Amino acid sequence: MERFKVCHRSELPPGSMRYIDIDGLPIGLANVQGTIYAFSDSCRHEGGPLSAGVLIEHTVTCPWHGWTYDVRSGKSIVPPVGLRIATYPVEIIDDDVYVVIDWSSEN
Ligand code: FES
To answer: Which CATH number goes with the domain that contains 35?
Structure first.
């Protein structure tokens, strides 16, 4: 496990998303009512950049063809139900946002 400082909490206000790259791993961050989630920023359909899509409550919609995912679990919602994008633990330390990566599950 490795922890990466990715931004300050003030850079990700509620309702917003942003893209980060951790050693070539594309990750989206979403702030849902003050809770920050980290997830794979690559859509399971054709790799669309999810953090460039639309965030409504816990649901992110891919900007390319509209697949949707729950940022809490990574589960797809519609369509097709049952796919999943990776999600990552987030830690807040002194208002800095950290993402924890388990590289053993990324390879
Ligand atoms: S690439 Fe995301 S819906 Fe097609």
So the answer is: 2.102.10.10
User: Mutation test of ligand 1: which of 40, 42, 46, 60 has the most ligand atoms closer than 8 Å to its C-beta?
Assistant: 46
| pTM, two decimal places | 0.95
Cα of 54 vs centre of ligand 1, distance in Å, is 13
Q: Which domain holds residue 82?
A: 2-105
Q: What is the pLDDT of residues 67-100, one digit of tens each?
A: 999 999 999 998 778 899 999 999 999 999 999 9
- Residues 39-65: pLDDT tens digits? 999 999 999 999 999 999 999 999 999
Question: How is 40-97 classified by DSSP, letter by letter?
Answer: ESB-TTT--BGGGSEEETTEEE-TTT--EEETTT-BB-SSSTT-B--EE-EEEETTEE
